[in-house]
Amino acid sequence: MQSNGVGGGFVMTIYNKTENKSYSLIARETAPSLATQDMYVNHSDWSTLGPMAVAVPGELKGYQELHERFGKRPWSELFQPTIALCEEGVPVNKRLAEHFAEEAVNIQNSDTFVQVILNSTGGRLPKEGDKIKLPLLARTLSVIAGSPNMAEELYNGSLTAQFVADIQAAGGIITEADMNNYTVQWEDPYK
């Protein structure tokens, strides 16, 4: 839960034994096109907290690239355990409960966090042993899992406009063009 959802990104190095070759996939987040060099100058906390900290996500596009190149199992099957967990509730372990306590003020001051986290526990901070249900994430992942367009549903499909609208409504600056134009990069790893 500290890192969940459809945002974020990654860098992955893959070794293909059959080919005796390694590949690196860069699926990192990128700055929105409306970002400026000085947008955090008088607001240093914006770079880590809130809607202005949201970058164009690369995670799902990266997963799709990996699946198209190396995947063996059906795309939809990959999402089922996570969808079930979101529907049934993510168990809160000791470390996650501590994290919620550390971030209590930020959680309580965010409409999104209140909706996602506190509504699952009757308005109080989750404790160890609680479960947090994530029905909206489950629905979003179900759309992506069930679509022949896969992750493109988020970047150039049925989820794009709402994703961007939600971020902009919270004060973020991601645009539909940012989502539409996002690409991952394959690179040769250093040897």
From TrEMBL:
Annotated transmembrane regions: none
Single GO term (MF): glutathione hydrolase activity
UniProt cross-references to SUPFAM superfamilies, sorted A to Z: N-terminal nucleophile aminohydrolases (Ntn hydrolases)
One BP term from GO: glutathione catabolic process
Residues annotated for L-glutamate binding in this entry: 28
GO cellular component, one term: plasma membrane
Domain of life, source organism: Eukaryota
Pfam families: G_glu_transpept
Annotated protein name in UniProt: Gamma-glutamyltransferase
Organism annotation: Graphocephala atropunctata
Organism lineage: Eukaryota, Metazoa, Ecdysozoa, Arthropoda, Hexapoda
